[in-house]
Amino acid sequence: MLIRYCLFFLLLAVSTAGFGQATGVLGGTVRDRSTQQLLPGVTLVLEGTSLGTATDAEGRFRLTDIPTGSYNVRASFLGYEPLLRANVVISSGNANILSLELTPAAQQLGEVQVTANRSVRVATAETPLSVQRLSVEEIKSNPGGNFDISKVVQTLPGVGGGGAGGTAGFRNDIIIRGGAPNENVYYLDGIEVPVINHFQTQGSSGGPTGLLNVSFIEEVTLSTSAFEARYDNALSSVLQFRQREGNPERVQGNVRLSGTEVAGTLEGPLAKNTTFLASVRRSYLQLLFQALDLPIRPNYWDAQFKVSTRLSPKTTLTALGVGAIDHFELAVPKKASPESEYTLRNTPTIDQWNYTLGVSLRQLLDRGYLNVALSRTQLDNQLDRFEGGTAFAGDESRRVLLTRSGETETKLRADVNKSVGKWQYAYGAVGQLIHYDSRYFNRLRRAVLAPDGTEQQPAVDVRFQTDLDFARFGVFAQLTRPFLPGDRLTLSAGVRADGNTFTEQGANLLRTFSPRLSASYALAPRWNLNASVGRYYKIPPSTLLGFRDAAGRQVNQSNRYIGSTHYVAGAEWLPGPATRFTLEGFWKQYDHYPVSVRDGISLANLGGDFAALGNEAVTSTGRGRAFGGEFFFQQKLTNNLFAVASYTLFRSEFSGGDGRYRPSAWDTRHLASVLLGRKFKRGWEMGLKYRFAGGAPYTPFDAAASQQNYLTLGQGVLDYSQLNTQRLKSFQQFDFRLDKKINWRRVTLDLFLDVQNAFVLPTPAAESYTFQRTADNSGFVTTDGQPVREDGANAVPTLLNNSDATVLPTIGFIVEF
Q1: What is residue 207's predicted lDDT score, i.e. its pLDDT?
Q2: H-run or E-run covering 339
Q3: CA 248 remoteness from chain centre
Q4: 499-547 confidence digits (pLDDT tens)
Q5: Sheet holding 60-67, edge to edge
């Protein structure tokens, strides 16, 4: 099949070759990063050409008649550090609209050489280390990424997931430096978005595919430590997505069709000083997985929009929204064994919908600006499982599981950002209203009847219903200043505190007082030394806070905020304007981590499932630690070649009720990735990506308890006396991508072939416990030929291998117009 895809791709590309050189347009704005003021007179040059321009009196630029291809754009202005935007693609179909921000440089002219090679640097004074940035082209052309931002992020240093962090290979859990997937926060143009994936695990993250349309994104910034004080509820990372502005000159758009989705995007002017972006996507993943005979059947719709308007030269209003409708179920592959078929048919179906709507106002002030953002997010999560599978959906007598759960959050945040001389400061506040409700039913055992129909043992059911309304609030302040001649040393200090109206003493802001300090020192023209220490807090998810016991009591109201202290130090070497090396060491300490009352185990040692994180009683008694070292190399587009390589060595351990540290569910010890991209003549581009992770820990089954309780629970019982003592085999994956761009007048065609796991390497996963089934799958095989007993004593236990290799090839095209 893969060979046929390649031949078809080449045939299309060759048959459409031979057209003349087309031209495109580059436009956008340039601002002062500190004040957000538009900068007139900024020089912009396309490296390697004689093409260039300058911003006008309103800080805007427009460069036309550019031969199509990829360029590095350099922006420079007296008194500011130079900025390099690498791999900017110029096509004839769509104008490329950039929003550039320049950082003020040292004032002494004699020190210009200190900053001359920092154009590739992504760090800021507030976050001088543990930060990476991805451009839209790096996302679009990422091999195996298939336009999915979450998959692209997994190639950055210290980031696991998607099979590389002990999670299922098809999921998008983002695991940062040994922290849980729900320790990350996501911001879309300053509006917090709770999740960025379809089919999320409520209270956590994950899901087979990303939610955000890459056509909207201009760049993505990942901070894995040293977060600014303005960001609340983050323990492992802050992921910021900056969306581009719509084309102010004309309506344009693109259509993307592949084996996984069809997507349409449209943008342009709505009125003077007002632009829009809008898109709709429809999944074809369920059809692709069916064709490949995979059990996964993810089916989704999503939509996204952004409208920006300049109310005045100093006031900009932005409205945005993103939403999804999801359906997820597992089907039975043609070659499934009777045991696999039985297990798959008894897996829950998931139906979700969610949305985020937000509006933000930016008002320029004297030497600064004010941001005000109001947003609303809602999630509806439904799970159903029926004995015998979805064929019996609606037959309540066969219902085994029901979950009806919803969350609604309304958030208002405001911050002021100003500079006075060399001092920069920011302060702000946030308020949030949260509603959570859940209705849960789980049938653990059906009624046992005697031959005469009388009930010998009653059915055992678990039911609870809960609802929760509370408020969250927080304040922050950040202060930054350079010191020493040439501003070689920059210090930034921040503090924030958060509270809520639900947990005991939740309104006591001293309990979450979180100071942080970062420093950056320009050791030499090409060397920087960086360090940070910070204290961070996160409130437990609503799925935990809202849990009620059988008596209807909210037993988790005494839970504390989860705390984490980060210590990070590192060096950065910038040998050239497009080359960057970093080396960092980190240590993270956790306290007040949730521990299960039922099992006495930290939730970090249990990992997550596909339904919800929580729905049980916990105590805030767990501790944790994650530490290690990290190397990163990046070569931006130079001589048509770009490359990224990283390696992280770490440990992640958490303690439960007994106080003993054990490996967390994502303690893979090793994470490595290599990405190579090459641009050829006539619009050809090729990318190669390799990822490696050490074996993730897992807990073996308790053979006796599993056999006795399987018919009641529908799954095996783990032997927690051997918690995470076993390890899976190492994870490896090689991805390949090939693109061919063809430009005509006002139209661009991009043909692409994307292959995930091209070397057909197995994806390590823990085995599943079940009983052997008869050949016709009408019942269980027994040792005595009699019907299986309630305690499973005469059943034949078996373990199902879940580590099969999966290759996901997709061929498609993008038409820009």
Answers
A1: 72
A2: helix 338-345
A3: 30
A4: 999 999 999 999 999 999 999 999 998 999 999 999 999 999 998 899 8
A5: 60-67, 23-32, 96-102
Residue 647 to residue 671: CA distance in whole angstroms: 6
R_g of the chain, CA atoms, integer Å? 27
Q: How far apart are CA 48 and CA 148, in angstroms?
A: 31
The set of residues, in sequence order, having a beta carbon less than 8 Å from that of 291 and lying 6+ positions away, is none
Q: Return the closest-CA partner of residue 178 out of 566, 687, 580.
A: 566
Q: Read off the pTM.
A: 0.90
What's the token pair of residue 378? 């809602």
CA–CA dist 83, 101 (Å, integer): 8
Q: Are the C-beta atoms of residues 604 and 724 closer than 8 Å to each other?
A: no
Find the distance separating the first CA and the last CA of the chain, reported in whole Å. 31
Residue 371's nearest CA partner among 194, 515, 191 is 191
**521 vs 488: CA distance, rounded Å:** 5
Is residue 556 within 8 Å of residue 592, measured between CB atoms?
no
Q: Which residues of 191-226 are buried (b: 16+ CB within 10 A; e: fewer)?
A: bbbbbbbbbbbbbbbbbbbbbbbbbbbbbbbbbbbb
**Are 448 and 790 in contact, with CB atoms under 8 Å apart?**
yes
Q: How many CB atoms lie within 10 A of CB 647?
A: 17
Q: What is the DSSP string of 651-719?
A: EEEEE-TT--EEE-TT--SEEEEEEEEEE-GGGEEEEEEEEEEPPPEE--B-HHHHHHHHHHHSS--B-
CB 277 within 8 A of CB 256: no
Angle at alpha carbon of residue 226, lines to 222 and 229, rounded to 5°:
100
Q: Are 740 and 13 in contact (CB under 8 A)?
A: yes
Q: How far is CA 378 from the centre of its chain?
A: 18
**Residue 758 CB-half CA count within 13 A:** 21
pLDDT of residue 233: 93
In sequence order, the 6+-apart residues with CB closer than 8 A to the CB of 134 are 152, 153, 156, 219, 220, 221, 222
Give, as one character, the DSSP assignment of residue 22.
P
Q: What is the pLDDT of residue 615?
A: 74
Helix (H, G, I), strand (E, B) or coil at 718: strand
Do the beta carbons of residue 328 and residue 299 sit within 8 Å?
yes
Map residue 267 onto helix, strand or coil. strand
**CA–CA gap between residue 781 and residue 796 (Å, rounded):** 6
For residue 49, the SS3 value is coil
**CA 207/CA 200 separation, integer angstroms:** 5
Cα separation, 321 vs 404, in Å, equals 24
- Bridge-based pairing of strands 641-655 and 670-679 is antiparallel
The CB-based long-range contact list for 286-290 (8 Å cut-off, 24+ gap) reads 287/259, 288/259, 288/260, 288/808, 288/810, 290/331
Which two tokens mark 107?
A: 């004032």
The answer to whether the CB of 243 falls within 8 A of the CB of 218 is yes
- pLDDT value, residue 18: 44
- Which residue carries 């935007």 as its tokens? 85
Residue 482: the pLDDT is: 93
Tokens of 95: 């104008």
Residue 453 is predicted with a pLDDT of 64
Contact 61, 69 (CB under 8 A): no
Asked if 280 contacts 262 with a C-beta cutoff of 8 angstroms, the reply is no
CA distance 300 to 609: 20
In a 10 Å sphere around its CB, with 0-12 CB exposed, 13-18 middle and 19+ buried, how is residue 817 labelled? middle
Contacts of 640 (CB under 8 A, 6+ apart): 70, 678, 679, 680
Task: Please name the residues in contact with 556: beta carbons below 8 A apart, sequence gap of 6 or more.
Answer: 540, 544, 545, 546, 547, 617, 618
C-alpha span between 577 and 118 (Å, rounded): 6
pLDDT < 70 regions, the chain? 1-21, 106-120, 162-170, 444-453, 455-457, 459, 607-614
Per DSSP (E only), the strands in 366-459 are 368-386, 399-420, 423-445, 448-449, 455-457
Tokens of 657: 């009720």
